[in-house]
DMT family transporter
Amino acid sequence: MDQLVKQRSQALTALLALAIIWGYNWVVMKSALHYAGPFQFAAMRTFFGALVLFLVLYVMRRSMRLTEFPTMLVLGLLQNVGFTGVLMWALVEGGAGKTAVLTYTMPFWTLLFAWPLLGERVHGWQWLAVISAVLGMLFIFDPLHIRADAFSMTLAVISGISWSLSVIMTKKLHRRHPELDLINLTAWPMLLGSLPMIAIAFLVPAPPIMWQPYLIGAVLFNVILCGAFAWLLWLFALQRLTAGVASMGSMLAPVIGVIAAWIQLGEVPDAMESIGMVLIAFALLVISWVTIREQPKPVKAI
């Protein structure tokens, strides 16, 4: 029993570290845009991140075989261009905290898309999460008072939608290949998706990259900490906790993003934005709580 408690404590600590890394990264990415264009930074983040993940596969002696190239390519486009590239674009004009919250509407979109695409119907308390998330987005967008960053907020939502579609595709791929290694499933789409991201970075006009220490640190933070290290923390937590608890822990990331942007960047949410953020946070908590109820048993170690 003591060993079990110790393992759960270690897993929760790993989740907290993961949430801090992912949450604070919104400030890091926003600040990095002073030195590089959004697509330039996204290309560096995804390409070098993929190389690090393949190094992890090699060190851990896991399979590097590419499975289902067309599916992996589409996953790469959704995760790297649709998610990473678009969220970096959103950060150009929008605040880091607000972008983080709107991007993390991903579980809400996943709920809706899983209905027609996976046959997983929205039921019970999930409807409360859906209604709360919709109201939250309406408060943040405040359609009665068009904001200057409406385009940025739309991009952030599109980023979350792209993320959710990649989740749906990943679930379908797991059904066909349940034996597929999780790191392999992350590395190949990241590598394949980084190639069009690099092309976009060259094609879209942008000022020359300013190779300042902060930019180099931001790239390393994204590649090493937010990439390989965070993924290992996630696997460590997932081995010792239920998927629902692990998912709920990761939902701390946008909260930390809002707080960090408030403290470091001076992004103070107004009343409407604050209400919207609280409603979206409540929706994420409801989704996580429902997931915990539906998956009561811990995931076995890989």
Notes: The CA atoms of residues 90 and 155 lie 5 Å apart. Residues 2-32 form the longest helix (31 residues). The chain is about 80% helix and 0% strand. Residues 296-302 have pLDDT under 50 and may be disordered.
